[in-house]
Specification:
Length: about 80
């Protein structure tokens, strides 16, 4: 898989009167391209990895090249991190 785009989302403002959490969610948008098998393997790595994450949204689309069987995977997820 090749990385097409990686962006960190700005942190959400805390709610008034809310208790400050020990850990904070760090959001990311990620776009990858490659074969369908590579996309499935990427999800497997996320599920079986050592980091905690929350998958907010994903989109899987067929690639633009008609002669290749490529896909584009877009992910919106949050990792657990220190504030």
């Amino acid at each position: 898989m090749s990385l097409a785009d990686l962006r960190q989302n700005p942190p959400a403002p805390p709610a008034k009167g809310a208790v400050k959490p020990i850990f904070a969610d760090v959001g990311y948008n990620l776009v990858l391209s490659g074969s369908f098998a590579q996309a499935v393997a990427y999800f497997s790595e996320l599920e079986n990895g050592t980091r905690l994450y929350h998958l907010r949204n994903f989109n899987l689309q067929r690639g633009h090249e008609a002669n290749q069987s490529s896909v584009t995977l877009s992910l919106n997820f949050e990792l657990l991190g220190w504030p």
